[in-house]
Amino acid sequence: MHSTLSFSQATTVPRSNYAFDSHSPSFALSKPINLRFCGLMREAFGFSNLTQSCSSRFRFSSRGHSKKIFASAENNGTPLKSFDYDLIIIGAGVGGHGAALHAVEKGLKTAIIEGDVVGGTCVNRGCVPTKALLAVSGRMRELQNEHHLKALGLQVSDAGYDRQGVADHANNLASKIRSNLTNSMKALGVDILTGVGTVLGPQKVKYGKVGFPDNIVTAKDIIIATGSIPFVPKGIEVDGKTVITSDHALKLEFVPDWIAIIGSGYIGLEFSDVYTALGSEVTFIEALDQLMPGFDPEICKLAQRVLINPRKIDSHTGVFATKITPARDGNPVIIELTDAKTKEPKDTLEVDAALIATGRAPFTNGLGLENINVVTQRGFVPVDERMQVIDANGNLVPHLYCIGDANGKMMLAHAASAQGISVIEQVTGRDQVLNHLSIPAACFTHPDISMVGLTEPQAREKAEKEGFEVSVAKTSFKANTKALAENEGEGLAKLIYRPDNGEILGVHIFGLHAADLIHEASNAIALGTRIQDIKFAVHAHPTLSEVLDELFKSAKVKAPASSSAVSEPVAV
């Protein structure tokens, strides 16, 4: 069966400030293999016309390419005679790194250009050091929770921390992962070219450092993977000391008594977890009418009861922080609030520090896109569903791709890596389209929040438009033996599905290790596994994975189990 996917106007979904940019001509597949793809949600991602055929994270066809490159990984391939490289990647973050490793595996002679440090935002200023700080906040919460410890029969004296030691832990982890990424590329023979990369024209790039002559290199294919930077709204003065972005916060130069966090998405929530564990009072300032926009409403309600209400956190919703002045001359940080609807001044706050957690903006300035007639849209590089760059006339730019935060489709490190791998598959002759609806996301608070697919309101909106029924199944962590053994029974898993055919539309989890549990659901969506089949999967007992086991088994599906399931006895 052929399926057709077309994209309409750019759409932004408020899921931790993710931005989804959709600009693509419609396409059709030929000879798809038996990995199914389905349209889970065109409304949320801006898909205007999605004809459902099935479900998968990737989709393949036999669309041919002019030439396949074969070479040994040890020698990092041998480029076509007319080019310096088979592939040049601009940006050595997680997305660029993933693409480079897969390219070498496919036999492509590969170079990666990096103007800052290997690892990009995730490793140096994002995912990695943040998780180090959150590991500390998690331990602190355990040690500070006298009731929890008493229930386990434990007695612990007053817990304390060394601020510099905590900061060093985050910095050391980032350094270690950065070194690992660098060494992995060097070991495979990827050429790491230092300098700022600029596209000069088709298949041509220059790179170099300020004050030094530029170098020009050519490649059959080029991938842009330059990532993003913190977005700071107008009127906010960042001094890096008392008014900070996540880049500064990760250095943990001081722990304020009272900090305002502008934005209550993933970034804001995670830093509220860190700061409150270390003793700060937190005030959320959120432009929308409720905290945690973009999360499933039911999960949001429970998460607020656990993560916000019992902690030293208050909030102002429905307001903009229109002006923030850093602390100076003995004065505190001053925040001027404006009503989001009326635009009238509403309040003024005086705090010790302010963290700007209003999302991220693509880092695409200076790429030389004007040399190939490409115009960014709100800073994002327009691409089609295969990550191929689109020029100002709506035409595909040959041999030029853009992955990760720079294209705005899904601003997550693992999404960038998946996009990069998908591009490499295409340039080596195997057409592959990434299904972003199967990519999971997580917020690493204590406990975690994770999700994949649609929220319940999104699913019901889709069902109303397309004429099918939606059902919801839930299970509590209070019914899980392992969670109770840990005295961590506060949690919920929620499944949104079609009862007629067993298609998984979305899964949302709040509870202990939710970020690890979500992958069973995301992989089921990616592989097109239906609920009636996954019910037969066996989970070790007692484990937290049984939360998902019970969740799938509680769903009421009318369709029978697939006849393709393994039915022959297996000798053991």
Description:
With 572 residues, the chain is α/β, with parallel strands linked by helices. The strands form 7 sheets. Strands 5, 6, 7, 8, 9, 10, 21 and 22 form an 8-stranded mixed beta sheet that branches. A 5-stranded parallel beta sheet has the order 12-19-13-14-15. A hairpin with a 5-residue loop joins strand 17 and strand 18 (345-351). Helix 4 crosses helix 8.
Q: Quote the beta fraction.
A: 25-35%
Class computed from helices, strands and strand pairing: alpha/beta
- Helix proportion: 25-40%
Overall form = globular
Task: Report, as a whole number of angstroms, the end-to-end distance.
Answer: 38 Å
Largest sheet, strands/sense/barrel = 8 strands, mixed
DSSP, total strands: 28
| Low-confidence runs | 1-75
- Tally of DSSP helical segments: 15
Overall mean pLDDT: 87
Measured on Cα atoms, how large is the radius of gyration? 24 Å
Short description:
This protein has 572 residues and is α/β, with parallel strands linked by helices. A hairpin with a 4-residue loop joins β24 (441-443) and β25.
